[in-house]
Structure formats: C-alpha cells, structure tokens
Specification:
The protein is α/β, with parallel strands linked by helices. The protein has eight helices and ten strands. α4 packs antiparallel against α5.
Amino acid sequence: MEIKLDNVCVDIPVFNSQGRSLKKTVMGFATGGKVGLTESGKTVVRCLDNVCFTASPHDRIGLIGHNGAGKSTLLRVLGRVYTPTNGRAVVTGKVGSLIDISLGIDSEATGIENIFLRAALLGIPKKQVERELDEIIEFTQLGSFIHMPVRTYSTGMHMRLAFAVSTMIKPDILLMDEWLSVGDQEFQNRAEKRLNNLIERSNVLFIASHSRSLVENCCNRAIWLENGKIVMDDSSKNVCEAYFGINK
C-alpha cells in the first residue's frame, strides 16, 4: 500500500461563465479555489493547488478547513474519482469510501435486493453478502420492510440500510466526509460501534470534518487546507490548536 501526492493540482472547468466577472468572483469565494483562465481562454477553478504529502501505515488523518477549502476534492483524488490536472497521485491498495453511502440504491427494489446491488457497486463478493446477510438485516432493524421497495421507507430507514451495506467493506484506505449520523440515539450507538470496527480494520483513514473533538480524538495527524493549498500538516493536536485556537 502506498499513498503519495506530489504537487497535485485539480482544475475544474466552468462552462458558460466567460465575461461574468461577478460570477467568477462569487464562485471563487464560494469554492475557496482560484478562478482563472486556461491558455485556450476557458474558465477554471483551481480546487487543489500543489498539494504534497505521504501517508504512512496506520495513519488516521483529519482534513480540516472551511467549506470549499478542497477537502472533498482531495478525498475524491484519493478515491481515484478525480485525476490530477497537474502533478502525480500514487494511491495503491483497496480504497473504501463512505462519502455517498446511498449511491446505487434503487428506490423500486426491495431492501434485500438493494443490499446485493449496493454491495456489488462496492466490489463486495456475492458470497460475502450471502454469508453476512442475516447480520445485515438484523442490524438495520427494518423488520418486514426489508422485503418492501425502498420508496416505502422513511429517510431514517433508507439511511440505516445504506449504512449497513456500506460498512461491509474491508478497505486498506478508508475515506469519510464527516462522521455519519444515522437513525435514533440507540441506532447511532450501534452504528458508531460498527464504524469504529471498520476504522480498526482499515490501514489508513482520511476523514474530512469540522469537529475539533473528532479530529483530536480519532486522528493522529491533521492536514489544514485553505484555497486548495496545505497550510499545515502536523499532529492533530498541533493543527487543531493552530486552526481552532488553544483550548483554555
């Protein structure tokens, strides 16, 4: 397993925006990136700007920074969703993502059918799903609704199903965008235990968060991003003190 980023830049093209200076200004503020023009005159937003770092085995890395600072873009590069515009990203090993746990859920299919559909999208072998099916059904607490179309589910039921399947993964590298909150307090306690087990099974964790306590308690290291650039990469305690201020 290897994670190494060398001068990684990600430029996102913006269509139909040329000549709209106000829109460019607002977009630059909203995204935290820099709006510019390519040589061909196309408008682009630079979401990551010369990002460099290496992750070591057993690193638990928190990504902090205001909305639009580049945290989610960085997660997508690590998840091989985005290819760097410039620079080089080396990510080897099995990547598991909890960024969009509802991706691939079919509202017309039943809960059981969706367990197999979502698992297939995550690359989980069918034999593993069959082996863990009873445990997944019990964990969701959906009862007879597991045989009903997902369109009949409440939002909480939908999230419980998506969470249960998504946490079946056994990745080398786990990507998360904030801590997941699903269901009532009782279910959240069970979900947190399941999530912690998943993190322990993973070799490296990246989690984007605005929570100081989460980053300090769950991460040994933090990366502070602003305008697509790394401001600081150090222990979670040192970075949180620099970003949030010193606890008194």
